[in-house]
Amino acid sequence: MPEKRTTEETFTPETATSKEETAALKGNPAKGEVLLRVEHLSQHFGHLKAVDDVSFDVKRGEVFGLVGESGCGKTTTGRSIIKLYDITGGSIYFKGRRIAAGTLEYRQEIKRLREEADAKIAEINAGADSEKEAKIKQCKAELRERVAQEKAKIKAARSDHRDCEKKYLKDKTQELKAAYEKALTTLPAEQQAKAKEEYDNALKELHRHKLVTQIQMIFQDPIASLDPRMTVQEIISEGLVIQGVKDKSYISEKVYEVLDTVGLVPEHAGRYPHEFSGGQRQRIGVARSVIMQPELIIADEPVSALDVSVQAQVINLLDDLRHKMGLTILFIAHDLSVVKYFSDRIGVMYYGKMVELATSDELFRHPLHPYTRSLLSAIPLPDPEYEKKRKRIIYEPLREHDYSVEKPSMREIIPGHFVWCNTPEEQKYKEELGL
User: Fold this and answer.
1) In a domain, 312, yes or no
2) Which secondary-structure segment (H or E) carries 23?
3) What pLDDT is stored for residue 115 in this prediction?
């Protein structure tokens, strides 16, 4: 059976989609374009701020590494992006569309505006101004207007979060219809019937594919992430079944194809997860993700539970798939040595905050934040002489930073190298780099 085509491939991709999307479908993504953008992401669980005001972007075709110690919010960030959690605050954009939005910053702004207005009214009441009532009335009117603006933002955020798929489907349907109508004006009469059939098939495919399913996740634990009561074929094909694919021969063909891609054999399709080693289970997890033909994969510590030799195999597999399928990868890990090999850019997280962000080479060449230096000092090398002299750097925030006068913010020290710091620290970092 021939390979099933996606919506864009089925009907005039040159007219129905942008050049960048067409290039991505052909496994040749337009590098440099931002595929995923995270703005001021906050994810709170009660009073626990698991992720607090984190911003970064991931470009097409690159591997973005997210590192930090256990509990720093890396996995929560990944799960928030794929919408396993409803985010507390901030916005997440995928392919230029807001797919997730929180309301924290808008609610905080409303609270601040009301406190500010109460203080202003109290100041007016304390004075002896003859136009006291008029000023209070004007102050309240301004408050109502600004609160209404923030409430409109809350409404828009909730609408985007809830209805992003409906809006995506509506826009893509309109694009497809416009492309079809354009084709009718240029095609001979005898070809118009075929074009209509192609259009109907493309429309059916479009209704099967969701925007968020173009993001897939590889989970950390290869045992817990696989249903022990399902065969490998059922696990890998589940996404296709949910999309409405009913052709069993087509499903089997795609499963065998993806098993071969990740280094397994068709005979494995009928087995259960407990019959495989840890590395093989993780390959099954990779297969489950790539069968959906995603544009972005979130790899949540995919090698942390594996032996060192198997880690290299899985990393090489992801690297091969990245180039073969034109994938973009958000690679979450706590092992900086692995991240350096695999990532183009790296973001370092600590207690829910992004504290440093730079290219892989720049981060290892010029680590600036004390926490990054601490992580780098913990990397062992297979050199006994070096290990005897290696000194661990212990990161103690209270000793390293004084934020009593000025609070920190994310600042660009040199182009592309960002650090969470205040003005005195920024000047110190620039001096270290000879700027």
Assistant:
1) no
2) helix 19-25
3) 96
* Residue 111 covered by a domain: yes
DSSP class of 408: -
Mean local confidence (pLDDT), 340-361: 94
Closest CA to 230 of 274, 278, 282: 274
pLDDT for residue 183 is more than 80: no
The answer to whether residue 151 is domain-embedded is yes
Confirm whether 190 is domain-assigned.
Answer: yes
Structure tokens that stand for 213 in this block: 């399913």
pLDDT in tens, 67-96: 999 899 999 999 999 999 999 999 999 999
Per the structure, the complete domain to which residue 130 belongs is given by 7-27+105-208
Q: How far apart are the first and last CA of the chain?
A: 62
Number of domains into which the chain is organized: 1
CA-CA distance, 239 to 230, in Å (whole number)? Answer: 14
Instruction: Select from 262, 177, 255, 163 the least CA-distant residue to 212.
Output: 163
Count CB atoms within 10 A of the CB of residue 256. Answer: 18
For the residues 316-334, what does the mean pLDDT come to? 92
